[in-house]
Amino acid sequence: GGVRAAEERTTHFETLFNTRLDQNYDRKMEIALKAVGFVRDHSTIFIDSSSTCYIFARELFKKRFVNLSIITTSPSIQGEAMRYPDSTLISTGGLLRQHFNMLAGKWVVDFLERVNIDAAFISAAGISPSLKITTSNSELGEILRVVFRRAQEVNLLADSSKFFKSAMLDIAHVRDCRRIISDRGVQRKIDKLGQSGEMPELVY
């Protein structure tokens, strides 16, 4: 018998929000700054709970939009809104999933089914080779499928590392988006993307 200190883990649970926030941070910031340009005054937008969308929301709050209402499932975005008392933020409510920085459950789905959304800004775990938007989180997938039904347009915020990677569950096809907003690294993948003939507007 004996006792020894446990070995320090070299990896972290991949869905921890703070870990994801640090991954490809520069690419996410590049995407966020571009995405702000597609937000309009006098509109209601949805922002999901991803790390990319959190960075986007931080930049969005710094701008002065007229009569902009923000719906979100992200507790972090709700906390950020506290720094901007003139902002209008609507929480979906729901069950807090701390690891995913997300409010989820039937409450969220029921709420979103009753609202009209002018534009949604979402992310995903990956865009598969067949150009499906994918996730490994079933609750997130259910929420985003409702968003696709309720939003006039969907903007997918996806850094270049997400292209041609598949997660377990399909959410929608990229053609269901109004545009994909990515970083300059996606240039290396343009030829392969163009072969499909099913791509929405690609901003990079």
Structure in a nutshell:
With 204 residues, this protein is an alpha/beta fold. The chain is 30% helix and 25% strand. The chain has helices at 17-22, 25-36, 51-61, 75-81, 106-112, 138-150, 190-194; strands at 43-47, 68-72, 88-91, 95-97, 102-104, 117-122, 126-127, 132-135, 151-157, 169-173, 179-181, 201-203.
Question: Topology of this protein?
Answer:
Layout: H1 17-22, H2 25-36, E1 43-47, H3 51-61, E2 68-72, H4 75-81, E3 88-91, E4 95-97, E5 102-104, H5 106-112, E6 117-122, E7 126-127, E8 132-135, H6 138-150, E9 151-157, E10 169-173, E11 179-181, H7 190-194, E12 201-203
Parallel strand pairs: 1-2, 1-6, 2-3, 6-9, 9-11, 11-12
Antiparallel strand pairs: 4-5, 7-8, 8-10
Helix pairs in contact: 2-3, 3-4
- Radius of gyration (CA) equals 17 Å
The backbone outline, from C-alpha atoms, is globular
What percent of the residues sit in helical stretches (DSSP H or I)? Answer: 25-40%
Largest sheet: 7 strands, parallel
Q: Return residue spans where pLDDT drops below 50 for at least 5 consecutive residues.
A: 7-15
Beta strand count: 12
Q: Give the ordered list of helices and strands.
A: HHEHEHEEEHEEEHEEEHE
Amino-to-carboxy terminus distance: 59 Å
Average pLDDT rating: 89
Number of helices: 7
Sequence of strands across the biggest β-sheet: 3-2-1-6-9-11-12
What is the structural class? Answer: alpha/beta
Strand content: 15-25%
